[in-house]
Fold this sequence. Notes:
Blueprint: E1 47-48, E2 58-62, E3 67-74, E4 77-82, H1 93-100, E5 107-114, H2 124-130, E6 144-153, E7 156-157, H3 163-173, E8 182-184, H4 192-201, E9 206-211, E10 224-228, E11 231-242, E12 250-259, E13 262-269, H5 275-287, E14 302-304, E15 310-315, E16 317-318, E17 324-325, E18 328-332
Parallel strand pairs: 1-10, 6-8
Antiparallel strand pairs: 2-9, 3-4, 3-5, 5-6, 6-7, 9-10, 11-12, 11-14, 11-15, 12-13, 15-18, 16-17
Amino acid sequence: MVRRHALPLLDTSMSSRQSRPIRKRDPDQPSLPFDPMPERIEPCLALLRPTVPVGPDWLYEVKWDGYRLAVHIEPEGVRIITRGGHDWTHRFPTIAEAARKLGTTRAILDGEAVVLNGQGKSDFGALQRSLGGRGGKRISTEAILFAFDLLYLDGHDFTRTELSVRRHFLEDFVPAGGEGAIRLSEELALDGEILLDHACQVGLEGIIAKHRDAPYRSGRTGDWLKIKCVQSESFMIVGYEQSKTARGGLGSLLLAGRRGYDWVYVGSVGTGFNAKDADHLKRTLDRLKTSKPAVPLKGKRFVFAQPTLIAEIKFRGWTDDGNLRHASYKGLREIQDNAAVFEITNGSGYPP
């Protein structure tokens, strides 16, 4: 029987099994008779879907809004690796210290670093501020890790094991209901559609659906799906519109998505940033100024920039002419976070 935790929202395979051949011991890890610990595992990514998959094959979790991290626990110490493969152990000392106290010699946890607001919801802007903004060098003592997968533990590689088994070991390793810097991202024992409605009512970004019998496969395979209440995607900033009255002289940011090797203009965003954000954005974009716009756009007050800065934008949908509807700026993505710029395809929700 699959164990499920009924968490209030924020307040088997039939194939035959065969034993694997005995592996030779890794000379660098002679005490491990089974699987050598991987140096790094490319993350499994959630595929965006408009509706919730239903049925007993799926489990559901909250969609956390932060930075994807892998926490490697080794005899030599703890390493915290970003989605892009960068070592950020020094940026999250509280999470690293909590990992050292988990009581194991070797493990790899997959999870999301977040900062919670007063209502217990993950706040991407607060996480960025705790790190000193994009390109900042500050450490974050406010961030906590919601662990949602266990990929390796004491000589056993779990990536070929179905999710239901991985969750079983994870729940023993990181118990539910914890209040420390590493917490369990609990399975929500509700019908998927009811859960999504509830998540949207309380102001969450959405939910994640995961196939119980799937192994851990890197990339967007469809084993994990994300269903959002409000759409939130990464877009390239290709310039800004000047203003004599707005904060710091920046009226709005000009945004683009990717179609193959080309940039496609998707509109502008003029809300979501304060005077300090606007001043920083304008100064940064002025250093990236170019006379060759990345998109075919003309305007007397437009200042074009080299496509370098990636912004996280929440929005309500698309207009008929392909612009974002009710867009709001959330923050800049770190290069180390390896954020993927929104890809405009037939299935992306972008107007045909």
